[in-house]
Write a structure and sequence with these properties.
By secondary structure, this protein is α+β, with helices and mostly antiparallel strands. The chain has helices at about 15-40, 135-150, 155-160, 170-180, 225-235, 285-290, 305-330, and strands spanning about 50-65, 80-90, 105-110, 115-125, 195, 200, 205-210, 240-245, 270-275, 280, 305. Keywords: Membrane, Transmembrane, Transmembrane helix.
Length: about 325
């Protein structure tokens, strides 16, 4: 096998225009989170993306004893403790029985002392529709402002949305959109989950995939997802293969081109993620709403790579800081 490409901080660097747009975007995030309780009609401040929590569970990563010797330094134990959050990508919370099938599965990996090793926010769609940092920041800012204005003034959103059309017309993106539409009514645990962007793996760069095993895709067809998950974890164990791909060649495995799949990079099975039945935590407690799955809080050797990923660093910080400040105040008043 060829030697993987090494991480270089140049993959993450923003230009001056992008930095200015990021500051504007951060202000819109803080404003959104401050108003999020009224936007979603709940008694706490929510995240500005993946606001809706379906479930939070404790789990375990069981390391594959047959992993390549070169990976032993990263997985020097038989197992690692996990906290896992299941969510919906929408920035608001609603009580609809049917949600759009844009699901998240954020995985937090602990070390032997209970400290944080890594956070990996994963999604059930492997690609991202925007490669331009400027377009993404303008679009995200416009969406935040529209929510606060009760969707008055949609022109800024439409103006940026038009710019992303070429990025969603790639073969990879269209193929995965068709696949998602065919599975849109399937049970949340039957989807594969992906890191979308790249992450460091020591000196190298990887993408991550979780592939569930033996899950009935037809479970809970006429139930709310939160209720179905609760029922499932009361009676079932959940297991998924943990797979990674290495970046060998930027042509086949691009770092800053998130609308195409990586090719010519075989998956390596790292181990299995397992959630034992009865492992659900109370998803609506204050403690769980204060949880952060910010991948930039991970150890340096596991942090995200790429310009779009870099934006998430500042966005997460603003969102978490604002949300925690408000929710701690509410918790002190007994509102949570």
């Amino acid at each position: 096998m060829p030697t993987p490409l090494k991480y270089n901080k140049k993959f993450d660097e923003l230009n001056e225009e992008e930095k200015k747009l990021l500051e504007i975007n951060k202000k819109s995030i803080a404003d959104f989170v401050e108003q999020s309780s009224s936007i979603s009609d709940v008694n706490y401040a929510t995240r500005n993306a993946h606001a809706k929590t379906y479930a939070v569970a404790e789990g375990t990563l069981w390391v594959n004893p047959n992993i390549p010797e070169s990976l032993h330094a990263f997985f020097d134990k038989e197992k690692f403790d996990l906290i896992i959050r299941f969510s919906n990508a929408q920035p608001t919370i609603n009580n609809a029985k049917k949600d759009i099938p844009a699901y998240g599965m954020a995985v937090q990996i602990k070390d032997e002392n209970g400290g944080l090793l890594a956070n990996f926010p994963l999604a059930n769609f492997p690609l991202f529709p925007v490669n331009s940092v400027s377009t993404f920041l303008k679009l995200f800012t416009a969406i935040n402002r529209s929510y606060m204005k009760k969707w008055s003034g949609l022109f800024p959103i439409l103006a940026q949305a038009v710019k992303i059309i070429p990025a969603v017309l790639t073969g990879s993106f269209l193929k995965n959109m068709v696949k998602l539409m065919r599975k849109k009514n399937d049970f949340i645990l039957s989807f594969d989950y992906h890191s979308v962007g790249a992450y460091r793996f020591g000196d190298y760069m990887i993408k991550i995939k979780l592939s569930p095993k033996s899950v009935d895709k037809n479970m809970g067809k006429n139930q709310k997802i939160k209720d179905t998950l609760k029922t499932y974890f009361q009676t079932h164990d959940f297991t998924a293969d943990v797979l990674i791909q290495f970046c060998y060649d930027l042509k086949d495995q691009p770092i800053n081109k998130l609308n195409v799949e990586w090719k010519n990079s075989p998956y390596v099975k790292i181990g299995e993620l397992k959630i034992n039945k009865g492992s659900l935590l109370n998803a609506q407690t204050c403690t769980n709403e204060l949880l952060s799955f910010n991948p930039f809080e991970s150890k340096t050797i596991f942090q995200p790579v790429g310009k779009i990923q870099k934006l998430r660093d500042e966005a997460y910080k603003v969102s978490v800081q604002t949300r925690r400040k408000i929710n701690k105040l509410l918790h002190g008043k007994g509102a949570l």
